[in-house]
Design brief:
The complex is a heterodimer.
Chain A (H helix, E strand, L loop, with lengths): L1 E4 L12 E4 L12 E6 L13 E10 L2 E6 L8 H12 L4 E6 L8 H14 L4 E4 L9 H14 L2 E5 L17 E6 L8 E2 L7 E4 L3 E5 L3 E6 L5 H14 L5 H35 L1
Parallel strand pairs in A: 3-6, 3-7, 4-6, 7-8, 8-9, 9-11
Antiparallel strand pairs in A: 1-2, 4-5, 10-11, 12-13
Helix pairs in contact in A: 1-4, 2-3
Chain B lengths: L2 H42 L2 E10 L4 E8 L3 H4 L3 E2 L4 H9 L3 E4 L6 H10 L6 E8 L2 E11 L10 H36 L6 H13 L1 H17 L3 H20 L9
Antiparallel strand pairs in B: 1-2, 1-6, 2-3, 4-5, 5-6
Helix pairs in contact in B: 1-5, 1-6, 1-7
């Protein structure tokens, strides 16, 4: 049982501040949860994803603005399909929206990316997977504003960090979204939380087996693939606890990660005691 | 146009061409430095083939600027269409990634391999960024030795990110120098096709931009120092790095009054 204390209650406060999450969320399938994948598109014909993508749209330049139209092209690169397949492995009954922002001619990468995020927020997707980012300083402010709007609308935005020396947006905005980098462990439930760090969560992102173009599979490494692991976990949490706000989801992830860490420490201590006993015997 | 004005224009152009020659001379050492960094970084992560791809035109196509390995020369003749392959994705998304089991079902790499006679099995690619803009892709293919190859690791990906930063600076310098080189080539090879007035105005504007002039002056000074010997190069580097540190120390980090 994981107890999450979102706020410390005191005698002057009437806010109910505690909620409890038992481990039954791990048995959920993401049923009824909507997830937007803002990426290179999703190959809806891939055996791993058939029937799971409820909406496919792609960005098109309309003068200096962006419009989204129904998409028939699927995935142009494989990346969006890979991300969706990771989420689907954890939350097989979740519903996907493919918002294709890469590969649209005539659009700057940052503009299509921001428009895709805005589209997902306006269409009230519960979780938004952003395995992309930008380092262009001119997008810092509009992206910040957009993420605040997502937060206020109750959309949970999960973004991949990039592992380059330059910070990328939006992963460095810690307040209004959940940012993720990769770690070596392959168990999706054994994610970590690095409180106080810019990129707070760590999840599997090394040699991840994913769906790819032409009905194939690949082993991929990158923060891009850590992000959908956390999206999948959140989909399970939301199925069991649809009332959770973005803030509460983050608190729950923190509490679960703390529990993961405690379990790991206990296991390591037990292993150490065991080896000491063997030496003494 | 009066004769005197023509003479003036000619003198101005000659002066600018002299500056262009400096930039031209800077281009070749830059590609050599990029290839040297590719060799060092490839050895560091135990990779067989490494390359740097840069944008070719406005459509987002990529071409190989530098490459090392068995098929390096062949690669330099190829172009990657916008968004194709891992390099195309990394260029458009800005996300580094590694991929194993490239396999024959990946039609893009199958086509490239068919042209080069190579067998792509595992790839690590990282974006090259300068001032927030993605200017190219750094890519490593396969391991040293015989297949099957071990996948690239998370630690190697992080290491490559550091090399990418250094290589991006060189690529940016190359791009700037190339602008002058191309213009120079055009002026010298096809004077009859040149729209003289247009180019003259452009060069005039450029020449009058203080920042450009200062940067070119700086490039001339650095080049001269670099040619005087190893000690001078080291001292110059130390002085320039200390200026950078001074500049960073004085950057705004807080808006709170102390």
């Amino acid at each position: 049982m994981t107890t999450v204390s979102a706020y410390e209650s005191n005698e002057n406060s009437t806010i109910s501040t505690y909620f409890q999450i038992d481990d039954t969320w791990k048995m959920a399938t993401g049923k009824g949860v909507s997830i937007a994948v803002v990426d290179s598109g999703i190959d809806t014909t891939h055996a791993d994803l058939q029937g799971k993508v409820k909406q496919s749209v792609e960005a098109r330049a309309d003068h200096k603005r962006v419009v989204f139209e129904p998409s028939e092209v699927g995935d142009s690169a494989g990346h969006g399909t890979a991300c969706a397949s990771i989420i689907s492995r954890i939350a097989p009954d979740a519903e996907f929206g493919s918002i294709k922002v890469l590969g649209a001619s005539g659009l700057g990468d940052g503009i299509a990316f921001l428009a895709g995020l805005e589209y997902a927020v306006k269409n009230k997707y519960q979780i938004i997977n952003l395995s992309l980012g930008t380092t262009k300083p001119q997008f810092f402010s509009p992206l910040h504003d957009l993420l605040d709007r997502a937060y206020q609308a109750g959309c949970i935005v999960v973004a991949a960090a990039n592992n380059l020396p330059q910070p990328s947006f939006p992963s460095v905005f810690s307040s209004s979204l959940i940012s993720v980098s990769k770690h070596e462990d392959s168990d999706p439930f054994n994610f970590g939380f690095r409180y106080g760090e810019v990129i707070e969560l760590t999840a599997p992102g090394v040699n991840i087996r994913t769906a790819w173009l032409n009905n194939s599979h690949k082993s991929l490494t990158g923060n891009s693939f850590a992000c959908p692991h956390i999206v999948g976990v959140i989909a399970l949490l939301l199925e069991k606890h649809p009332e959770l706000t973005p803030f509460q989801v983050k608190s729950a992830l923190y509490a679960i990660a703390q529990e993961n860490q405690d379990k790991k420490k206990l296991a390591e201590a037990a292993k150490q005691n065991d080896s000491q006993d063997k030496i003494l015997r | 146009m009066p004769e005197e004005e023509n003479k003036n224009s000619e003198a101005k152009l000659r002066s600018i061409i002299a500056t262009i020659d400096v930039a031209n001379a800077l281009t070749a050492p830059l590609t050599l430095s990029i290839e040297n960094l590719l060799k060092i970084s490839a050895a560091e992560i135990n990779s067989e083939e490494a390359s740097v791809l840069i944008r070719d035109g406005d459509a987002g196509d990529l071409l190989f600027l530098a490459a090392i390995g068995k098929v390096a020369e062949h690669l330099k003749t190829l172009k990657i269409p916008s968004g194709k392959g891992i390099a195309g994705f990394v260029f458009s998304s800005g996300q580094p990634m590694a991929l194993t089991d490239v396999g024959e079902e990946d039609t893009f790499y199958a086509a490239v391999d068919q042209q080069t006679g190579y067998s792509t099995q595992t790839i690590l690619a990282a974006p090259l960024r300068h001032d927030g803009e993605i200017i190219g892709v750094l890519e490593y293919v396969n391991r040293i030795g015989e297949p099957p190859f071990e996948p690239f690791t998370s630690a190697e990906m992080d290491k490559v990110a550091l090399f990418a930063e250094a290589i991006a600076s060189l690529v940016n310098a190359y791009e700037s120098a190339k602008l002058f080189r191309d213009l120079s080539d055009k002026m010298l090879s096809q004077p009859e096709k040149m729209r003289f007035e247009e180019v003259r105005e452009w060069l005039q504007d450029l020449r009058e931009t203080t920042e450009h002039k200062e940067m070119l002056d700086l490039a001339v000074v650095v080049r001269e120092i670099a040619g005087r010997g190893a000690n001078e190069r080291r001292l110059c580097k130390e002085v320039l790095e200390s200026i950078l540190r001074y500049s960073e120390d004085n950057a705004e980090t807080s808006f709170l009054s102390s």
